[in-house]
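## Example pair
The file below holds two records. Each record gives the amino-acid sequence first, followed by its structure token line.
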Amino acid sequence: MMTVKRDAMNAVILLAFCGLAFYGSTLIPERSLGKTEGDFFPNIIIGILAVLSLLLLVKSVYAYVTSEKQQRTEPKTSLKERWAEGKKVWYTFALFGAYIFIMPLAGYFLSSVAFLFTLYLLLSSNRKRLWLVLIISIVVTYVLSFIFQKFLLVFLPSGVLF
């Protein structure tokens, strides 16, 4: 039952984020007619996230309504237990914040490779073949930067240091 409430809360928070992100994407200036504008790709991602959030909300409301009344009485969990369950989530948020902070200094490529590699170290229990993870991080970052710069014509930050 706790996961049903958590899913519903996450869906509502994500829908609110989608609303703010869509408003933010409307503030992107238009450059020319006939080409896809700067808000095209963000609006696609926002739309997909909004649809998935709505599906999660519907699923969690349906699960809550159809659950038995006996399951609605949950044992209380301490704050320490909740922190232990979700600490990887909080570490991921902190890592993402550091990624955003470091990107203007180190540039897109270096900060993205470091972010992906560190995220793997944080979330994975398997520490074998770290060289392969580093190579995959480099390749994924290069492919994404190539797509953004050549096809979507989005300029990625080149850092102050690199």
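Second record, same layout:
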Amino acid sequence: MKVHISHICYCFLLLNSAFALYVPRLSTSPVLFSSVQDNIRNNNFETWIIKQKEVSFQGILNNIGGISDFLNETEVAKGAVIASPSKNDPDYFYQWTRDAALTIKSLIYYIQDAEFEGVDHIKLIVESYIENNYYLQRLDNKSGRFDDDSKSGLGEPKFHADNTAFNEHWGRPQRDGPGLRVITILSYLSLLDKFEKGVGNTFLGSKEFIYQEIVKPDLIYISKNWQEEGFDLWEEISSLHFFGSITQLRALKDGVRVAKELKDDPDFIETLQNTYDDLKAFIVEISGYAPESHPYIIETPSYLKSGKRSGLDSAVLLGSIHSHNIESNDHADVPFDVTDGRILNTLSAMVGDMKYRYPINHNKIGFERGIGAALGRYPEDVYDGHGTSEGNPWFLSTATAAEVIYKFLYKLGKNRENIVVNSENKDFFKDFIDIERIETEADAQIVIPYGSTTYVSLTRNLFHYSDSFLEIIKDHVDNSGHMSEQFNKYHGYMQGATDLTWSYSAVWNSFRWRERASRTLNKI
């Protein structure tokens, strides 16, 4: 049964929907921490976002070799992205393939938004990162070698900041790094094509060199290893994981496109396409990532089956946002984007769990529906940023929750889509509209037409829901906008690795998507 709603406003929808959402202008001049006034947390929310966005971007730059004023060039290679300047308790003074790829993607967004105007220094950083990865790929390491049949060495998760191999005990291999690197580098090459720009780095020289010497080896690694177990993005458990699989799928999709553009060997293109088809079938039908028994995505099915974990994990949300470019239709056939019911239900389930799990969220219990909570990695987490005791909320997890909804709203508005509430996404929408009919009739759905009064009210309410996650971040950064890895679940003060690069990147991304969602909603 289908119910259309056009003029009915439920009592808990935001009724005043006529106001315009604020959209700050793009700044192409990131500022140093020292030039931002003290106590930026004392500003109102909109002003804090402007200042925190600048601080977050500079926080990224401060952790990249060759550009940072704070890193010793003898310790950190040019183009190396360190996870954190922290060298003890904990020691994060390394470059991770995953963290670096996700961080550089933020810089590529920055270049895109500026349309290459006034960002030559950022372009140089991105290309230095690409060159640096050429060298890292070819380092023999504990995961393997570059020149064997499966490119096994590309599964090595981290390296010393000076581009030497890390040979101590670690959770290796990790299978997500090559795919994330492909996504980031090909995103940059696509941007160069769009704006008719060339590669400025003299070592790299051309798009063709980058593809053949850096991207293609990673694609070979994925095609040879996607079925093999590896450690998850939290570096704790070895199995097959949603985050790794879905980002590998995106990388293969992008790889097929560019391989065709550059007229690579037809047999290799066929291998990539066949691998894409096989991996997609595995994700959707075989893996256990989306079992009928659960309304949300399971990050590591083997650990659900063994009873060790619930399957809930912010890695699922990260996997969704990093496996789709919703500004184009290039990834329409990659499953589980931000509009997918199971992704939305994953977010809802994470909030539902952690508003009870973390005492700093307890003031949100029973107070108001449709309000965010501080989110950690997964319910069973015991890593406290220094050792093992109790898990805490993470800045990047909380920011990612906001980004999911901002992207959801952006995609709805961009495509002028109706909102359809049904049995697949009702767990998410139940905090925003009355779903009694769906609860009692299995095939029922509610269609909220694009542009209707209820549509406008609901999308504004969802926008403020996203904002509520950022308001939590505002409460827990320090007065200058610095961010560590975690904030304590009891007292809320930061702990773990200081100035975590991934924290800055995730928060900056959420601000960017807030602006884009706002512009889209203002056109309705």
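Notes on the second record: The first helix runs from residue 45 to 61. Strands lie at 2-4, 94-96, 158-160, 230-231, 238-239, 419-421, 445-448, 486-487, 494-495.
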